[in-house]
Amino acid sequence: MNKTAYFNNAATTFPKPEEVYSFMDSYYRQSGTNIGRGGANTGSNLIKETRNLITEIFHCPNKKVVFVPSATEALNIILQGLTIANNFNIYVSPFEHNAVTRVIGYLQTKYKLNVKELEVDKNNLKYDLEKIKYQFSEDKPNIVVISHASNVCGILAPIEDICTMSKQYGAVNIIDMCQTAGLVEIDLSYDIYDFNVFAGHKTMYGPFGIAGFICSGDISLKPLIYGGTGVDSANITVPETLPDRFEVGSQNILAVAGLNASLKWIKTIGIKNIFKKERENHNRLISLLHKYDNIKIIGECITNEGVGVVSCIFDGYSSDNIGQILNEHGVEVRTGLHCSPKAHKFLNTFPEGTVRFSVSYFNTDDDFEVLKDSLDYIEENS
């Protein structure tokens, strides 16, 4: 079987660091204990160490880390757990994932909510901070949800600026960091960030099945799921303490082990060095795509300012057609709407969607050579 040239890292990074594979294998062979349910303390110690690694990487020893199976579940816990009332003003970016928009859509069936879009200039795809400041002054924000980086075009949001403004009105700020956690250097110790959501299998280079959120614990959330937590078992209610309140059921300790190893790898390499290498691969991808007149890059004005996610359309072909051809030639990408129809509507690529290329730290010369041969084939046969 020939190696696939992998350009679908926005969906999940691949390959993972070798340390992730080896530690997951050795850990599961040597320890199968559950957390807080008897047996040795190996699993509990691993969980604690992994939480500490996260707070160290994000410079927030003052905050709590809650582990759940997916970022989607984390966003549901937060958005459905907040105390919400009719006529709340909820601000979102134009680039939100369905993990945000569908939850808000559900909440709109229960409450009369004013869902507003943060101002972004369609010409340069930059957040218009002056207009956002005016938006907040006119309609005071109760909740602000921002995707730190778009999974469609890679644009980075100025979250510190926006959250500083919204906090002046007492807003709850929620940042979706699925495309940036472990890749973009950020200090989460500030009180302007209430909830920061991460997905272990993306830019944290861990496995599937482990995600969560970082929070101060000052804002009370209603539980989404009820059941055993391994602590305070005599009570009929779930514990009030964090993270126990939201870590119901048995933890995916194997996935935690993988995340533990990937976080240590991130610490060893350094976030700035990982970002630098990804930016090199990002620029190499852009340079290659520029060589083809039949390819249009969406949001090209910000390609040097975002993360390594590039959406394209090909003259005369649907995104699904191109995806199939690339797959047949050993290139893996993602096509369609990427679970972000809101972003595609903003970028005028709805409903057809785009061909999305996304790089990582691990893309190789061979990957780019296979991609070039595939794009040559498409151009020659168009």
Give a short summary of the structure.
By secondary structure, this protein is α/β, with parallel strands linked by helices. It has helices at 18-30, 42-57, 71-81, 98-108, 129-138, 159-167, 253-269, 271-289, 319-328, 341-347, 365-380; strands spanning 5-6, 64-68, 89-92, 114-117, 143-147, 172-176, 195-199, 211-215, 295-298, 309-314, 331-332, 334-336, 354-358. It has a seven-stranded mixed sheet with strand order 2-8-7-6-5-3-4, sandwiched between helices.
Keywords:
382 residues; alpha/beta; Aspartate Aminotransferase, domain 1; Aspartate Aminotransferase, domain 2; seven-stranded mixed sheet; 11 helices; 13 strands; globular
